[in-house]
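note to self: dont lose this again. the chain is below, predicted strucutre after it. 203 aa total, dont forget to put it in the shared folder this time
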Amino acid sequence: MSKSRNIINPVLVVISGPSGVGKDALLTKMKAINPGYEFVITTTTRSKRLGERDGKDYLFVSKIRFLEMIRNEELLEWAQVYGNYYGVPLSQIRGFLEKGKDVILKTDVQGAKTIRSKIPGAILVFLSPPTMDDLAHRLRDRMTESQSDLGLRIETAKQEMKDKQWFDYVVVNQNEMIDQAVREVMNLIIEEKRKELTRNIII
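---
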């Protein structure tokens, strides 16, 4: 059952942007600083990458379990991306907000659209590369995709860049300057919390 809360604090912040732009690096830095934020852990069916840990980087589940979560309406939003499923667990968000915690979550651009339609009071932040050439270099350098998958991600990113106009904020992740992007995101959260605005969050 949906619950409605009229609140000034906390805030729900959605970090989105094209694949390879540095969303995970941004969240890792924010977690290290962590001035009271709670971070939603995305559920996925994809395989772990080198160095990733279950329950910390992602919640890794089987396709069968993920489809069960969809049927049970356990996800705020979900999508199939590059052959794998990704979803945002509802229980985490509800639990954090009920405790008065600021909530940060990461999703793809389509997922951000879904969240905007369901939770108009959420703050949407688009993390952008300096240029598409920079993004292509980042994707190639991380060497986690085949050549065909790489091409698909670059083409998808071009389309996603067109959607940044309807986000609340656009933060450019300059090369080797992730700390600057982190500061920008944290500052905009502070500014949002200073606004005398009652956000109606319905989850």
